[in-house]
Amino acid sequence: MEYSTILLEVRDNVGHITLNRPDAANSMNQEMVRELMDATARCSLDSTVRAVLISGAGRMFCSGGDIKAFSAQGQDLPLHLKEMTVYLHTTISRLARLDAPVVAAVHGSVAGAGLPLACAADIVLAAETTRFRLAYTGIGLTPDGGSTFFLPRIIGLKRALELTLTNRTLSAQEALEWGIVTRVVPDGALQEQAWRLAAELAAGPTAAYAAAKRLLQSGLTESLETQLEYESQAIARMAATGDATEGISAFLEKRQPRFKGT
């Protein structure tokens, strides 16, 4: 599939989505969010994609929405933003619910909708000079992309309010301490380490990964007894898979397992 604002490459069972508007700071316009929705749909349907990696081309990951494109809409801006959020929110939901593990490799600036896009990933690697900023209220708008879902859960309500109301900028180290980022790596090592991690996940027991992700998500809202039952059902279901048989055999035989995701 040919795209004009992103790149999609599938290699070694990793679907690599790259935001590709470097001259516009990888800001999101309507075409980009539409293409992201399409690319994530393709990754979800492609049985060869066992992990997904999201990164940005050029100097930064994503600066948020394309403010110049917003300005050009004039009185049609409300409709324009409504349409954009349909595509963006489908993308965010699909990434968060994707069976395959999702890794985000972020650098430079992560602002506006770029922040919830990163938060939708399962693991976030950040270059050490990365800066994070929510930015919406600075132009008189409110957060979208799942910002108000992810941030209170990840960093707590008070910190989420601070980021939203003051537009405070976080360093990569602060984002790590707050739980937005999984790992901070040297700037020059970001892409290599992110690709290595995605490839390792793609070689893992992806059926178990998918079930574990669903368990952790449901554990945020279910009662203890309900969640315990979900865990019981899931581990019994996984025990019947070829990956469980292979994993147990490899452990006993003291060798590396060869998982197939089934």
Can you walk me through this structure?
It is a single chain. The protein has 262 residues and is an alpha/beta fold. It has 2 domains: 6-202, 2-enoyl-CoA Hydratase, Chain A, domain 1 (Alpha-Beta Complex), CATH 3.90.226.10; 206-253, Lyase 2-enoyl-coa Hydratase, Chain  A, domain 2 (Orthogonal Bundle). Helices cover 49% and strands 15% of the residues. It has 11 helices and 9 strands. It has helices at 30-45, 67-72, 77-97, 114-119, 147-155, 157-166, 172-178, 190-202, 206-218, 224-239, 242-253; strands at residues 6-11, 14-19, 51-56, 102-106, 109-111, 123-127, 131-133, 170-171, 183-185. The model has no long low-confidence stretch (mean pLDDT 96).
Strand and helix layout:
Blueprint: E1 6-11, E2 14-19, H1 30-45, E3 51-56, H2 67-72, H3 77-97, E4 102-106, E5 109-111, H4 114-119, E6 123-127, E7 131-133, H5 147-155, H6 157-166, E8 170-171, H7 172-178, E9 183-185, H8 190-202, H9 206-218, H10 224-239, H11 242-253
Parallel strand pairs: 2-3, 3-4, 4-6, 5-7, 6-9
Antiparallel strand pairs: 1-2, 7-8
